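ugh ok fine here u go
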Amino acid sequence: MMMAKKQDARVPIYTLVVVGLSGTEKEKGQCGVGKSCLCNRFVRPSADDFHLDHTSVLSTSDFGGRVVNNDHFLFWGEVGRVVEEGSDCRMHVVEQTEFIDDQTFQPHRSTALQPYIKRAASTKLASAEKLMYFCTDQLGLEQDFEQKQMPEGKLQVDGFLLCVDVSRGMNRSFDDQMKFVTNLYNHLGKTKKPIVLVLTKCDEGVERYIKDSHTFAITKKNLPVVETSARSNVNVDLAFLTLIQLIDKSKGKPKIIPYFEALKHQSQLIASAKDRYEWLVNHIVKNHNETWPNISRRMQTSPEYKEYVFLEGTAKAKKLFQQHVHRLKQEHTERRRKGYISTLPLALSSLVSELDEIEHLSWSGVQKVLESKKDFDHWFVVLEDAPWEETPHLDNMEDERIPFDVLDTTAAEIIFDAHLEHLRNECRRAEIRKEFKAKLMSSPFVTPGKPWEEARSFIMNEDFYQWLEEPEYLDIYNRHQKAIIDKAKEDFQELLLEYSELFYELEVDAKPSKEKMGAIQEVLGEEQRFKALQKLQAERDALVLKHIHFVYHPTKDTCPSCPNCVDSNIEQTLASCFPARYPSFSKTHLSDSKADRLNLVILGKDGLAREMANEIRALCTNDDRYVLDGKLYELVLRPIEGNVRLPVNSFHTTTFTPHGCLCLYNSKESLTYVVESLDKLRESTLGRRDNHLSQLPLSLLLVTKRGVGTFGDIGAETAQTLIAQGHGVAGKLQCSFLDPASPGTGYGRNVNERQINQVLKVVLDARRSAGFRSSSPPPPPLPPTIRDLQPEPSPEADFRIIMCLMCGDPYDVDQLLSPFLLPQHCRPTSNQASDTSVLLEQTVGGHRQTIELSLLSYHATFSMRKTKLVHGYIAVYSARRKASLETLCAFLCEVQDIIPLQLLAVGESQAELTDSESARELLNQGEELAHEIEGRFSRIVCGGGGVIGGLHRLDLLQPFFMEVMEKRSVVEATHMYDNAPEAGITNENVYSPRCGSPSPVTMILDSEEDMEASPPYHDGTLTSHGGFKMPDLDSGDAFSVISDLSTFESKLNHKVVAQVRPKPSVTFDLRKSFNPYMDQMTHRRSLTSSVNWPPGGEGIYDPSDYAEPMDALSKPRVTHEENIYSVPHDSTQGKIITIRNANKMHSNGGGNGSDSEAESSSLERRRKLSAAGVKPRLYRDRSKRLGKFSSFRTSFSIGSDDELGVPPKTKEDEVGPLKGDNSLNEEGEDPKKRNILRSLRRPGKKPRPKPRQSITKPIESNYFGMPLASVVSPDRPIPLFIDKCIRYIEATGLTTEGLFRVSGNKSEMESMQRQFEQDHCLDLVEKDFTVNTVAGALKAFFSDLPDPLIPYSLQTELLEAFKINDREQRLHTMKDVLRRFPRENYDVFRHVMSHLNKVSQWNRVNLMTSENLAICFWPTLMRPDFTTMDALTATRTYQTIIENFIYQCAFFFYNQPPAESPTGPFGPPGPMVPSCLPPSPSAAPPCGPPMHHFMSLLQSPPHSPPQSPHPTPPEPQTL
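structure:
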């Protein structure tokens, strides 16, 4: 075999010739055997370069062109490949064919006239300038294709590829083809060149033809067969490379791959390339509007694109792109269609929402209805080109309107059917809801607060369950419940207002006692509006407490009509009429201004701090802002009443840094508390960063507890002693001592603006200075004048009238007041105080008079009934509101009957006054009331047409004004007579027989050291005054002052004549001078024989700096009326002072017994009243309608829930002093003072009174007030003191009435604690302590703990557990919380609850049920913060939690089943728990009372306490 010529020694070049059946159509059939396709695929394998159509029929010109070049062979070009060994080789590919003339259809004549078989077997080919062949389109257009010539114009053939078409050829016999192939093979074999038999078109191959071909090859020795498919590009390269390996024996033996195996590999390759290409298209093409040219350019450089185009071609790549874009468009169209379909229900609901409009129409008819709607264009769009998918609207994303042709789809019709059915169902559901609501309205079983579970069975039926779900019924029920609850609350609030007299007669405090709350419930219990909230007792109690807070602390904020309080309406009306005079009443007044913040601590025990905070807030604006010297300050108050070392009572918190402290006291104990607290504060801040707390600006103020009355009511000696010692403490503490606050009786104030201004000025001065305080104490503030304290009628007014209006009345207040505020007779007052007063110019009795008219609400006027000088009242009430008339009646109860009164009944229309039965009833009642009390009555109409009835000329009030003018002098004289004695003021110049001093005030001295001068006033007028000097408050003896205070009671039993220093003369004007405490005085039960003092000022003496001998007090005159009542004197000691309230028609005894001028002054006042023939009484005495609840005034002790007990009055109390009382003088002693001193003496068991021990407690205790963990141990889990107290009580006091409720003696409790600290083996029986003392000490132990026995961290969980409705679940949840108590807390709590459970077993004897015990113990065990109303309203919850622990003690601690709830006030007690001392009389211990004593006590109750089933005799213990 001849080797090919090599151009490159390293890369051989072989010439390969492809031969096969050729010739005319008659010889080869209609198509060739695939020689050209085989060459095309091998030389140019890319799919884009592969052509299936290669024709052999040519024109003469094409045959003679340079591509064919008049030859019957084609030069396909040169191609390189890498064989299996990895070496490169290059090949020239030549196809031997026979071209047919398109004219003659005979072979073209060429230079070689040999037949095809001989010509194909030629080994030498030559053709000058012959060009490489690409495709049929190249012929005649050679210049448009690459022109590459056959090398050197001649080639040496190295091998042959013999092609056999195994497909079912048209017009061709396979046998004839095989004969031709056999003949051709024989000629080729003569050349000795390698031959490869190539089976073409195997993708369409016939199995027999393939088999015959293989048989042919077998007959020819060593003839390899390769099955190929040029169209599918299968084994094409293999055929040529096999020939190469035959040519070059060094290439190795060829490995021929079967067709189907190669086809599978090629298909996998194409599929993989297709997947990668589709991923590329999905990644790049996101919009269905993309075009192929743009995307193909972007993909040119991507290998995925190149690979797929190479294998499948650009056409298929484009087709896949178009399929992807079409899919995107379909998805977009479907999304738009779904959006239109989802919007269609909304469009239908908007356009055709009425069932009656479309129920009878078809879908096509409904479409016409839609087109007629005015909002049709808002929901739909009509497109000219259809369908809508092919219009630009498809891609207009901003236009979401529905194409109208969408309605022609089946989906749209289904939507309409659903809409129609929905409308039908909604109509039915609306009917059901309406029926359900009507049933709720009419059902008697649906009451406010009734749970759904209870009401459901009464109102539900099958139809209800069929059409609506239960949550919807529950929502309707809850909204109905809210409506009826709100209505019931409004009705109940109106009911409370209708019983206004009850609340004012009870004199409720901020913390009303259980007895008073019970009395309120008893009175209101039969009212239907009270019963309506039966299911909401907690909210009802909260409303009562809120109303009590309003009665106790009446402001615009606490008013039930807030924010529409009539005071606010009046202020706005005056601001609109006189904006220059009343700028503070405008809506923009200071509320939007920026205010400096002042943080003020209020320190005081026994409720003093909380009450003072409430009083100060009443003087602030609605947002707690205070105006001082024209500047606005935000006032933040922090009342503190407990141990200042506890975090809850800390002066400083994370959000509160104090700027000053106001210290309050009203007894020696409260002053002791102040001193102790300040000492603890100084000790706790030494060496700390917040050491400035020890230098806070301090102010000390003496106040009286609410309900006590004047300072005279607690005794002149007591008051003067407290003032003197307060001065001493203020001097030692280097703080300012404020003049005593006026008494807080009834509903007045304990503080006034002057005192608050003094406190805030001290704070501001300290803040302006470099430090909080300078080293030297500031001078005390100047005492105010009488005019500073007592508002008096304007100097330009002749008399004062107050017009009272009821908050919440339905008439128009502006229209009612408009006739009074006409500019021709009304002008504002010149006084710049922020009150609601105007001046009226009227002609009364022929004289021109100026009337000061104060416009106020009833709740703002209550505090002025006895304190302000008022010449007449205009009381307005609504003719259609009972509460308005009842509030008027409550107001009149405490008004003196000599003050003229005008009643005005207001209606909104004349028809209302005449036609309404309820209005006529109220009009008649008002008219009858006016007739009974001899007042005046008028009715007016204040409605849409304005005020009717002549009031616009004020002629209606002329008779009333006339009466006011006539009684003016009597009213003024009575007012001065009632108030002047308590102020120690006369209307004459008074001179004392000793150095010109008037009657001095008695001062009780303990020793001669107390007669040193007190710190003088720095007023420039009074330079040096005598008085008391407190013992030095040295650091080594912090309690020297307190020790001096502890001798307080003993001082009352000894009379020491004090030094008397002269006083300046005082001139008093009856017309213009008033009692400085008059404005805050609202209670008439003051002691007329006690001596009071006015604040000092220029020209006015200060009796706190003087002393008065005891014998200087005049004896009281015999009066016709004495009212004996009780007030708390010292709540910490549980004492009651019995006070005799004498009629005020006698002298106050304020002057010296020989002072004739002072005596004549009193007689002169009495003469004026006698001349007028008037004996002042109250309006309540004139009418049966008034004073319906006056009996409640004497039914309760004044106080709060401290349960103050009143010792029973003995015969000796009424006749004379106690036997052996040497301190009382029968002849020279004031009987009222004797009663006070007697009430201060504690009744003891023994006839001989025991000497009182000092109440001073040690500064630090190693037992009391220590953490609970420090007083217990593993072998003694119960503190020894608690164990001793409980054993003592169970041994001796289980039958004591009021056990734990009646307070013990405080000094005895402290003595008991001191003795126990000295000796833990203290025997309580031997020391003869009372049961109440031991019980009080037991409670005090828990009060002194740093943290409450029930930890704060678990109290919230207990509250949440208590809210669970299911009883069993609630008890078990509370039990789970109980188990998380600290161990020591749990053990002690179980011990205490077991003891209280045992006490409750004797409730028919000791009257202490689980509920009563819980009332006594829950504040001690839980200690919530009572500074908010929320805490006040939650008191019932706290109490019930402790009550559950007591009653269910066996369940919580001894694994017994829960007991049934008790019924009635003395229902069966809870199940007994194991104890060493059985509760029943049969198991009484030997150390207890004798058995017959127990049996005698048990005869009155109907049943004895249940006996323990297994009584265990107690072990002897030392108590």
